[in-house]
Amino acid sequence: MKAIVLNQKTYKLEIKDVERPTLSYSDVLIKLKAASINHHELWTLKEKELRSDSNIILGSDGSGIIMNIGTDVNGLKKGDEVIINPSLNWGTNNKVHGENYEILGFPQHGTFAEYITINHQYVCRKPEHLSFQESAALPLAGLTAYRALFTRGEFENNNRILITGIGGGVALFALSFAVALGAEVYVTSGNDHKILKAIKLGAKGGVNYKNSDWSTKLLQMAKGFDVIIDSAAGKGFTELTEMTNPGGRIILFGRTAGNIQNLSPSIIFWKQISICGTTMGNNEEFKKMMDLISSKKIRPVIDSIYSTQKINLAFNKMDKGEQFGKIVINMDKFNYDI
Ligand SMILES: NC(=O)c1ccc[n+]([C@@H]2O[C@H](COP(=O)([O-])OP(=O)(O)OC[C@H]3O[C@@H](n4cnc5c(N)ncnc54)[C@H](OP(=O)(O)O)[C@@H]3O)[C@@H](O)[C@H]2O)c1
Known about the structure:
Blueprint: E1 2-7, E2 12-17, E3 27-36, H1 39-47, E4 56-57, E5 61-69, E6 81-84, E7 87-88, E8 102-103, E9 115-119, E10 123-125, H2 132-136, H3 139-152, E11 160-163, H4 169-180, E12 184-189, H5 192-200, E13 205-208, H6 214-222, E14 225-230, H7 237-243, E15 244-252, H8 265-270, E16 274-277, H9 283-295, E17 302-307, H10 311-319, E18 326-330
Parallel strand pairs: 11-12, 11-14, 12-13, 14-15, 15-16, 17-18
Antiparallel strand pairs: 1-2, 1-4, 3-5, 3-9, 3-18, 5-6, 6-10, 7-8
Bound molecules: NADP nicotinamide-adenine-dinucleotide phosphate (NAP).
């Protein structure tokens, strides 16, 4: 089969012929129709992190059609249209993943390929109201947003919520979920057009974090936040603690803007703020996220769809932060020129 592999000498993605994966008794074989890209893979490309001693097929998100099932698989059959949960081996503790935890795409080969085999416990039927491309946008970002907002953020409908960097894939899922449940949501972005787009999707307002007075303006608009969902950290994180209501929660899942600086301890203990890290989610949260998407007919925001040959351009766009929502790759056609 053909696959997009990471050449760990050049740190470029290349289309290659590789062996089709074999099916074990508890696996399903999926012909992939679409994948989507995440900042997770971009970090690997940018930071030249050694992922394995051989070429590795990256990709955490995918949707497709089941072509074959192992002898022990129940509840799924050939021809089912499915999506994959990339959060593997979470373990038994709901509070944190265990030491064998993996995100699909390393060390297990990922979704940037014609076919994938994966244990059936990580496969579920795609929502009927979504296309393959929309479904491929869901797994990693949707799951991260679900756990951030509901499990770690302890979301309640009357909460006022701030989501930073709204152009991001996870951020837009958090917005869709919170708006679908009637919350008052504000956003930040480095791009005014993205703020307007977020308002069209149901946000009450937003500010550009590139303006020096962004936090003052935001407080004038919204007065304070019960839950803040942040993927940036960096210099602006201190201001987030100032904008958090007493007893409020800041949920952090990323490091796009680098290390946190000059955090004031007194603000944190006097307002009794909780600063919570979060990563991906467990199988139960994945199912709940899928139920929410189906019951509220939520559609992921798709920025753009690329062919396999243009995948490096897709990552360039993400690197420049130009996207609003998820970038999807059609996995139907492969050529060698990339
Ligand atoms: N822990 C986990 O489980 C987990 C899961 C998924 C992602 N992540 C991490 O979360 C981050 C976002 O991931 P993603 O896949 O959603 O990435 P993405 O789609 O590439 O989004 C990144 C977003 O970060 C925002 N941003 C950049 N600089 C910022 C700043 N100074 N302040 C506020 N926002 C800023 C941008 O928003 P604007 O364009 O609106 O300016 C950009 O759209 C990455 O660091 C990723 O590694 C972690």
